[in-house]
Specification:
Blueprint lengths: L1 H6 L2 E4 L5 H15 L7 E5 L11 H13 L4 E3 L10 H13 L3
Parallel strand pairs: 1-2, 2-3
């Protein structure tokens, strides 16, 4: 995180239980180095799994909202089990419009 704070324009993280701690470390390194923390774009890798019939949509939205509250700008993802169900439609109908408001 020290190198990110000093040189990077963005950093990509994973939404692990340590994410908030990692962001706090980055914030501290930015402060110590005289850099604005908000100048660094924060992203995560998060697999979107709305479930075959949308049963996980609420959990996905809760996690996306948590990430937004932590200052995550973008979520890079893959849609799991896309060939077995209708996740793209579910994401377009029930996740993207709500997440756009975060």
């Amino acid at each position: 995180m020290r190198l990110v704070a000093r040189y990077a324009q963005a950093c990509s993280l994973f939404p692990t239980p340590d994410l908030e701690h990692e962001l706090d470390l980055l914030r501290g390194h930015c402060h110590a180095g005289g850099r604005e923390y908000d100048q660094i774009e924060k992203t995560v890798m998060y697999p979107l799994n709305p479930g075959p019939n949308g049963e996980n949509v609420d959990a996905v939205l809760v996690e996306l909202q948590r990430l937004a509250r932590l200052g995550i700008s973008y979520v890079h993802s893959r849609v799991t089990d896309v060939a077995l169900s209708r996740p793209p439609e579910l994401l377009g109908e029930r996740v993207i419009p709500v997440a756009a408001e975060f």
